[in-house]
Amino acid sequence: MDIRVPALGEGADSGTVITIYVKAGDEIKKDQPIVDLENEKAVAAIPATAAGKVTKIYVKIGDKVSVGQALVALDAAGALSEPSAPKSAPLRESSVTQPRGEYRYESKSGFPAPASPSVRKFAESIGLDLGRVRGSGHGGRITLEDVQAHMKNLQEVGATRRVAPTEIKHPESIDFSKWGKIKKEKISSLRKTVGGRMTESWTTIPHVTQFDEADITDLMALRKKYAAAYEKKGTKLTLTSFALAAAAQALKKYPQFNASLDEAAGEIVYKEYCHLGVAVDTPAGLIVPVLRDADKKNLLEISTALEALAEKTRQRKIGLEELKGGTFTISNLGGIGGAHFTPIVNKPEVAILGLGRGAEKPLYKEGKLERRLALPVALSYDHRVIDGADGARFIRAFCQALEGFKEKDVKI
Q1: The domain containing residue 267 runs over which residues?
Q2: Within its chain, how far is the Cα of 294 from the centroid?
Q3: Do 116 and 144 meet the contact criterion of CB atoms below 8 Å apart?
Q4: Cα(119)–Cα(116) distance, rounded to whole angstroms?
Q5: What is the mean pLDDT of residues 369-387?
Q6: Is 357 in contact with 376 (CB distance < 8 Å)?
Q7: What order of strands is seen across the sheet that includes strand 70-75?
Q8: Does residue 88 register a pLDDT over 50?
């Protein structure tokens, strides 16, 4: 039998092989990890669906694989053989030309579409509804070839719908070695994902970026005073923790920043939950895990959840679902350096907050000129949903929330 790529989750149909745990000749157990796939920005282990002896490895590290594709061949004694037809198996013309969505199996008896147990099991493993597949066998029975033809048709139709022929552009390679010594490395799967998402966001969202500064002198004094107490609880009290709490306050006051634009329906979707994305710098690239229900957590709970989430992300153990569902994102580059910058909105969100490194400067405090610590703040937002006046109001509300933390808010 072949162990194939299972359904990877909502909206996910492919991944890149980054680890292979087995080799030909290995005896493996059911549910033992055989490969790791990197999908979007998450890494998922693909387990064996049966016990047996590995007879062949179909993939290598770096290969991009899709749902239903064979990963390894397994000699599983006593196991139900999963369909594994040769690549040259003929495709039924009636299935190949079948447009997606036109066919639906109608049962007069109430039973599902006819198919063998092995075909049914294979379809289930890749998340395929057999009721959409036209069977070519006796009595309309669905064969493996029918399933293969249907999948091929879906891929062809999907590719046609995504890109019109006139939109296809073929980039040209430049031979930079003509001017000196060079070094090349393949673009990682993560970098491609990040690049694709940023390109889509930048080209489809009319961005506006608003700048401001927050006086965090008192806040940092509170952080210093209670840092040890938080460490005793097994976590760290950071500026990002305060920023998440302050953002949750501002989002309650201005819910349009906690929304998404549904272009297909022509609607603005206001979310009554507050799930904040936090940009994490990892050796592999930028990843944005989501901290759920930030508005319902106190500073200790936010700090604990944030540290666990960031560490999980840096170790590439973050799950795909933990990267979804965000309503607003914060990117804090203060630990690295720099002042204001223009963050790109993390679509389908409509706003993102960027924090730079605080710097001491003369500021007025209650009518007196003092040496204070000023934090650069940048807010980028989707101008289709948010007007400039509201952008100014939100960034002021956020800065005031940062400046307004009291000892009772921090004390454990």
Answers
A1: 191-410
A2: 19
A3: no
A4: 5
A5: 96
A6: yes
A7: 2-4, 70-75, 52-57, 27-28
A8: no
Q: How far apart are CA 258 and CA 349, in angstroms?
A: 7
Q: Are residues 309 and 379 in the same domain?
A: yes
What's the rounded Cα separation, in Å, for the pair 186 and 184? 7
What span, in angstroms and rounded, lies between the C-alpha atoms of 153 and 354?
44
| Spatial separation of the C-alpha atoms in residues 303 and 255, rounded to whole Å | 24
In a domain, 305, yes or no: yes
Strand spans (E) along 89-171: none
Which residue has 């299935």 as its token pair? 95
Same structural domain for residues 303 and 377?
yes
Indicate which residues carry an active-site annotation.
Answer: 383
Pair 76, 90 in one domain: no
Q: What is the DSSP letter of 62?
A: T
Could you tell me the CA-to-CA distances from 127 to 5, 36, 100, 124, 144 in Å, in that order? 11, 20, 16, 5, 15
Residue, of 367 and 331, whose pLDDT is higher: 331
- Residues 362-373 pLDDT 10s: 998 888 899 999
Which is higher by pLDDT, 141 or 107? 141
- Per the CB < 8 A criterion, the answer to whether 354 and 278 are in contact is no
Whether 355 and 330 have beta carbons less than 8 Å apart is answered as yes
Which pair of tokens denotes residue 37? 């796939």
3-state secondary structure of 225: helix
Q: Length of the chain, please?
A: 412
Q: What is the pTM of this model?
A: 0.66
- Residue that is last in its domain, among 114, 147, 164: 164
In a domain, 174, yes or no: no
Decide if pLDDT at 86 tops 80.
no
| Structure tokens belonging to residue 336 | 């690295």
Identify the bridge partners of residue 97 per DSSP, sorted by sequence position: none
